[in-house]
Amino acid sequence: MEEEKQTAGAGAAAQSDFSQGTVPSNILRLALPMVVAQLINVLYSVVDRMYIGHLPAAAGNALTGVGVTFPILTVVIAFANLFGAGGAPLFSMARGRGDSEEACRIMGNVFSMLTATGLLLTALVLLFKRPLLYLFGASDVTYPYASDYITIYLLGSVFVMLGLGMNNFINAQGFARKGMMTVLIGAALNIALDPLFIFVFDMGVRGAALATVLSQFVSALWAVGFLCGRRTLLRLEPRWMRVQLPVVGRITALGFSSFIMAVTNSAVQSVCNATLQTFGGDLYVGVMTVLNSVREVVMTVVSGVTNAAQPVMSFNYGARKYRRVREGIGFTTALCIGYTVLVWALLFFFPRVFIAVFNDDPALMEACVPAMHIYFFGFFMMSLQMAGQAVSVALGRSKQAVFFSLLRKAFIVIPLTLLLPRLFGLGVDGVFLAEPISNFIGGVACYVTMLLTIWPELKRREREQAA
Fold it and tell me: Which residues cross the membrane (predicted)?
């Protein structure tokens, strides 16, 4: 199959050959636009919260109502990751081997599964909306806001999944700037529409959700349009969209770690909200909404770097450039640790600056400051978890990636969230303390395991090649 040569010039093909040039330069070339893309992607939901948090009346209740929808939004993202994040490394490995047909087949199957799953999720969640929202921490006061927001948002869940999932394949081909445009276009539209729908048309949280849905539709249209066009290296075509169960099985096996990570995030959010509702009421559910919002923003750099490193490591692994894979691991780790140490210092010394972005209610501010100090303690340890897991996914180690996804959230955070407030009498502080404890235990366990398993194997393969 000569499609790559026919559909792109030599310059684009060279730019997408991650076995050439230095490894740090390849990662940074992808990372810079991908970090911007991650930050912009966060703006979809964060901008909504910023505007909602400053509504003229009942801003606190509205913000809390939107906050209890997070577990549902996270599940939508989880399925986008299941197929998108699972298919992209396999796609990159196939490209590294020179197997363009297999790469196209993987991309087409991902598109079909994203579309079908998005439609199914919309129907199921709308059917069980009320009990789910109360389960996730809604009260009689905040339920109307949560219901208004999630009902409209779900109508656009297919667009959310296609935009997020298919953008992985734009980045995997080296078109990081085009991938950035996928979210930039939608985010710019979202920022413009939010104040119009929320304040001018007086739609409140419904306006925020409608702005997000329309923006995600445009993002999805851009991503799919680019992959179907002539400027891409490998084109998304109907002949590759026929679902093949063996291919889907390999995609979901590798994407399961990203899926589990997102689903356990959803479970953690719902357990945290429910526990905080018991020990602190709506005020502390609002505090967790602010902390989650800050966390989403500051984690964009780590997510962007690890997402950029994955196609580079996958391509070189497929091309049997094992020394370059090890260089990618070392560079990614150093960059992530340095950044998260800096962020931890800023959040510790200037918490009010970050909190004020989302809400200026005095009671919420006073409750947020000590909670932020606890929640983000030792924040840099989180980067070890993400770097170690990115390596496992990039090299196709699905079981290892899944295990550490479950370890930190399901086996550490959730039990601690339930036990610390009750058994040790810490109240709401126990909920916030569960996060740093899990970062230390999960981060060390994940990264050390990678160093003891994957790293020696890469060195062994290097020696075999040299011999």
Answer: 27-47, 67-94, 106-129, 149-170, 182-201, 207-227, 247-268, 329-354, 374-394, 406-424, 436-455
The CA-based angle 166-170-176, given to 5 degrees, is: 130
Give the tens place of pLDDT for each residue, 77-121.
889 988 998 898 899 888 888 899 999 999 999 999 999 999 999
By CB atoms closer than 10 A (0-12, 13-18, 19+), residue 9 is exposed
Nearest one of 143, 43, 73 to 357, comparing CA atoms: 43
Q: Is residue 10 part of a domain?
A: no
Please report how many Cα atoms fall inside a 13 Å half-sphere around the Cα of residue 380, on the Cβ side: 15
Cβ pair 69, 213 in contact under 8 A: no
What whole-number distance in Å separates Cα of residue 381 and Cα of residue 366?
Answer: 27
Rounded to an integer, what distance in angstroms lies between the CA atom of residue 166 and that of residue 173? 12
- Does 16 map to a domain? no
d(CA 96, CA 84): 18
Q: Which residue has the tokens 């806001």?
A: 145
Angle subtended by helix axes 428-466 and 322-349, to nearest 10: 160
Cα distances (angstroms) measured from residue 340 to each of 295, 343, 345? 11, 5, 9
Read off the tokens for 238. 């109907």
Instruction: Among 59-68, 100-109, 133-142, name the one with the lowest average pLDDT.
Output: 59-68
**DSSP sequence for 81-115:** HHHHHHHHHHHHHHHHHT-HHHHHHHHHHHHHHHH
Q: What is the dihedral of CA 167, 169, 170, 176, to 10 degrees?
A: 90
Residue 35 within a domain: yes
Query: Which residue is it, tokens 């496992």?
Result: 392
Are 329 and 313 within 8 A, CB to CB?
Answer: yes
User: Which residues are CB-neighbours of 392 under 8 A, at least 6 positions away?
Assistant: 257, 398, 400, 401, 404, 450, 454
Query: 154 is in which domain, residue-wise?
Result: 21-462
Q: How many domains does the chain have?
A: 1
Helices and strands, number each (H, E), in the chain: 21, 0
Which of 450, 340, 448 has the alpha carbon at shortest distance from 401? 450
Q: In angstroms, rounded to a whole number, what is the distance separating the alpha carbons of residues 186 and 86? A: 24
